[in-house]
Amino acid sequence: MTAQEDTATHPASPDRASTHTYETTDVPVDGGMLRVGVWDPIRQDPVAVPTVLAIHGITASHRAWAAVAEALPGVRVVAPDLRGRGRSNGLPGPYGMARHADDVAAVVRALGEAPASSASEAGAVPADRGAGGPVTVVGHSMGGFVGVVLAHRHPDLVGRLLLVDGGLPLQPVPGLPADATADDIVAALLGPALERLSRVFESRQAYRDFWRTHPAFAEWTPTIEQYVDYDLDEIATPRGTDGHAADGAAFRPATTAEAVAGDSADMYTGDAFPAALDALVTGELGDVTMLRAPRGLMDEPGGMYPEPFAAEWSTRAPTLTIETVADVNHYTILMSPPGVAAVRRDILHDINLGGS
């Protein structure tokens, strides 16, 4: 069963926080339906609550935001599976930052601000749901690139923009030749996170074991396990062959290699992001905050954005504030207590300034 063939009704949630309900819904976009996770705050009064649009990274899914969402009582978090990822992996290309920005713009227009109720029992967008923004937008990794382009292409939908270890040009990878392709650069940056897309795993546990050996996830948590479990499609294989499970079931990561390749090329050679970045530099996008992880995808020192690079961009873009979150890497900035606390603080700060 592919992710896009999943049931059309999905009100049940794999977990339920004390402050939120969680469910998924589908939003129509060009080419099909985009799956969206919604964490709705539990509330007694039928009043609107602030909404945050959360955009995940290049090989992730909306479940990357679970810990952040559950740390925001009184705030509604809407997080799509981007085209080519999660339960949106059946959507066709082309990919790229502009395509994703238009997809998430459709999400904001469909879901917008929350009225009194959660998503419908049928898993589709209720007719009375959504005032269309503006909302606070937070993007992690490639999701930051999408957020910058969204703010440039659809400024009416974005109240304030928060970048989480993403959204600025990526640094050259040491050791790669000057003529390295976009695919070469992204492969060097993502390492095992990209290599796994071509693999088939005999069980969910085998996939968990793969991630448990990843240096970035030295501290395994239930949130990380739920994130990893969601990132699988079950596929049918000949019973008991090729080392797969005896019942004939096997699993592969939900993110498509085609989506990663298309987005990688677009981040380096496309037109949408450079134009949006110019708007950020000139202040057209307003005040923007970026939270920087001091360690990278493999938990290595320096991170995706080394200190000198961050300092350069703080000077180059006067309306950009870059803050370093201590003791986190590119993943745990969303999935560890210190990372979640920093993202929570800045989201609440933006909301209080009128971002939603």
From TrEMBL:
Q: Which residues cross the membrane?
A: none
Q: Where is this region: Disordered?
A: 1-26
The record's section on InterPro entries has: AB_hydrolase_1, AB_hydrolase_fold, AB_hydrolase_sf
GO terms for molecular function, please?
hydrolase activity
Domain AB hydrolase-1: from-to ranges = 52-342
Instruction: Tell me if Flavoprotein is a UniProt keyword of this record.
Output: no
Task: Please provide, in alphabetical order, the Gene Ontology terms of the cellular component aspect for this entry.
Answer: membrane
> Which keywords does UniProt give here?
Hydrolase
* Record bears the keyword Nucleotide-binding: no
What name goes with this protein? Answer: Alpha/beta hydrolase family protein
Please name the source species: Myceligenerans xiligouense
